[in-house]
Specification:
The protein has 133 residues and is α+β, with helices and mostly antiparallel strands. It has two domains: 51 residues, no CATH class; 60 residues, Laminin (Ribbon). 18% of the residues lie in helices and 30% in strands. It is built from two helices and eight strands, in the order H-E-E-E-E-H-E-E-E-E. It has a two-stranded antiparallel ribbon. A two-stranded antiparallel ribbon has the order 3-4. The protein has a two-stranded antiparallel ribbon with strand order 5-6. Strand 7 and strand 8 form a beta hairpin. The longest helix is centred in the N-terminal third of the chain and has 16 residues. The radius of gyration is 24 Å and the shape is elongated. Keywords: EGF-like domain, Signal. It comes from Ridgeia piscesae (Tubeworm). This is EGF-like domain-containing protein.
């Protein structure tokens, strides 16, 4: 009877994990990532086993454009009202965001005027963080 219970539990566990790609085996990262990254001023492309994607670029072309400054997403100054555009690489995904603190504006591109503060009462929970300075 115990053997049947153990087998049934193993079958349930196998069904629950079917189709899920594990990134670790025995403490080692086993996910294969393919892409490119800048090393010593050169675009190096390849495949690497890792827990998180070490490649900020999907192709050598994308890497080369960025190396030449043509992939600079902040170059066109997308932030309004003197917000600062900052580029980031998070787990291999390139992104940018506007930092609006100290401008009197908030939002994705610093386009929304900060609401007035009520000095007599604490700030409401939904008060924009970029407006606190």
């Amino acid at each position: 009877m115990r053997l049947l219970v153990v087998l049934a539990l193993c079958a349930v566990a196998a069904v629950a994990t079917a189709g899920r790609k594990e990134g670790r085996t025995a403490g080692r990262c086993t996910t294969a990532y393919r892409g490119c990254k800048l090393q010593a001023g050169h675009c190096k492309c390849g495949t690497q086993l890792a827990c998180h994607n070490p490649f900020p670029y999907k192709s050598k072309h994308e890497c080369t454009l960025d190396k030449q400054g043509r992939g600079d997403r902040c170059k066109k100054e997308p932030c309004r009202h003197k917000g600062q555009c900052v580029q980031a690489n998070t787990n291999g995904h390139r992104s940018w965001q506007c930092q609006c603190a100290g401008t009197g504006f908030y939002g994705t591109r610093c386009g929304k005027k900060c609401p007035p503060e009520d000095k007599r009462n604490p700030l409401p929970r939904n008060y924009p963080v970029a407006c606190i300075y």
